[in-house]
Structures are given as C-alpha cells and as structure tokens.
Amino acid sequence: MARIVNQKFEGTGYDNGESWTEGVGAGCTVDEDASPGDVSQPDFWDRQCLKIVKAASVNGFTYVQQGETAIQYTRIEFVITDHTIAEGLSAPIVLGLNGIGSQCWQLLLYRSSGVYYLLIFAELNGVDWTADVGPAYSLNTRYRVDVKWDTTNHLFQWWVDDVDQGSAALTAGHYIQGIVACGDPYANAGAYTAYYDLVAVDNADRIGSEGQPAVKRYAGVPFKYLNKGVW
User: Fold this and answer.
1) What digits encode the pLDDT tens for the residues 152-162?
2) Which residue in 69, 72, 86, 173 is deepest, having the highest Cβ count within 10 Å?
3) What are the sequence ranges of the domains in the chain?
C-alpha cells in the first residue's frame, strides 16, 4: 500500500506538502482552513476541513495532481449543508481525472422526482459512460465515498459508507487517473455548500475508514466546542 494523497486540511494551507490548485469563480469560496462549525455529522474530523461554496453557473474547485498510476483508490468524506439543483439535473462534487484533466469519473448531487441522490458517472473507454444512481442523500449528513479506478484489472467500483454501490468493466481507450478534484470545475447550473475532509488516494488498496482520528465527537455537542482529543 502506498498513500499518494493524504489530505486532512489541518494547519495552514494544505497538508503534507501537497500542491493543490484552486479555481474560484465569482460568488464562490474555496477555504482549505475552514472550521466544521456546527456541521453535526463529522464525528471523526479534526479542527479544520475544506469548505466549498459553489454558486450557480460558476466554477468553484480545488485539485491535486498526484500523477497517473494504473490503480487508484480515492476516499473522501463530505457533508452538504445546502443546495439548489433543478429537477432532473446534477452538480459534480468530486472528480477523478487523468493527468491532463479528462474525466475518469465524477460524483454528483442529482435530483429526480424531488428526491436528491448521489450519482456517479464513469467513462469506461474515453467515449462510453456508465451512470450509477446511489443512495438518497440528506443535508447535514456525513458520507464517505470510496472509488476504485483500476486500469490494470480494468475495473471501476464505488462504495458509500462501505456499502458496495456497483462496478463496471473498463475497456480499451480508458483514461488513467492522475488527479482528484473537489468541487465543480465546469460551471454547472447547480449551487451548493459542501464540507470535505480525509481526502486520500492509495495505489494498492481501498482506504475506507483508515486514518480517522481515534477520538469521536461527543453526541449532542456542536463540533466547534470540542478540543481535539477531548471527549
């Protein structure tokens, strides 16, 4: 196992000497030193996280270029606190891209018949896509998503909170992942506020809950009033 991205957004700026690049359109915010504040669900987050306020029809994102490798497992946790997404439309919140920014996969917020879902698109061969609708999501709730992009064994697979959401075979012409991005680089019509933490990429194994701090937030106490390591 080799961890090629390991971002917890603690301290000033980005952790571990990782070089992230931001794109912030008018009305958007990308803050890698944000406090979780009163977000109720991040039981295992530390004092800081990434906050993205994405305005409608404007891009707001940050990404790290970790280099293309044949196998990449991406793990990310996030909480959506508000959104405006029209019926039948979606807005990307996390993306896996190749080294020049072409899409391998993207995780989106999707609205159908008034219900909001997690939706993932995967580009199987540079042309053909598969779309998997995942679980319905709720505001102010923490989700952990793992994505496997394996061009050695030609397999895409994803999980939400360790529950397998499906897989598909990659075929000739597929891209090799080399970038993970948070937010929306495409100026989608949707708007949202998202908090992210524990962004990691491994080139051998699925990460899951590994690397979460051992101390859990005491139930009922707003996160911002707890010191790290104190119940």
Assistant:
1) 999 999 999 99
2) 72
3) 3-205
- How far apart are alpha carbons 50 and 72 in whole angstroms? 22
Q: 72 near 146, Cβ under 8 Å? A: no
* Joined tokens for residue 117: 């879902």
Closest CA to 74 of 175, 161, 179, 185: 179
Q: Residues near 129 by Cβ (< 8 Å), separated by ≥ 6?
A: 121, 122, 123
Least confident of 7-11, 33-37, 134-138, 154-158: 33-37
Q: Do the beta carbons of residue 18 and residue 65 sit within 8 Å?
A: no
| CATH number for the domain running over 3-205 | 2.60.120.200
Q: Tell if the pTM clears 0.85, that is, is over it.
A: yes
